[in-house]
Amino acid sequence: MKALIVLALSYAAMAAVSLSMARHQEQVYGKAFPAMALRLGGWALLAVALVPAIAAWGTSVGILAWLGFLTFAALAIGLQMTYAPQPVRWTAPAVALLGAVGWVLA
Length: 106
Known about the structure:
Protein name: DUF3325 domain-containing protein
Transmembrane segments: 32-56, 63-82, 88-105
InterPro entries: DUF3325
Pfam families: DUF3325
Structural class: mainly alpha
Organism: Pseudoduganella lutea
Radius of gyration: 14 Å
């Protein structure tokens, strides 16, 4: 369960960081806009995703697992932004919500 929570939060964080770039904003929303909040939110979610990893597996293994989940999340966002960028506008918030709810319930 903790693995899915870390993966969900990592996916949402990578989506926010990628959507802070003008190129990806144009792909998803059709226009670019100032996105400092997305960039800061993405970095904050990256830090938040580290907390359940450390809580589940300890410091050393938790950080290593977190880095692995970040890799998978970046791959998933990269593939989604390449082949189907439009659904990111609803998949990222939905996955972030599921990760947060799962973390609260666990």
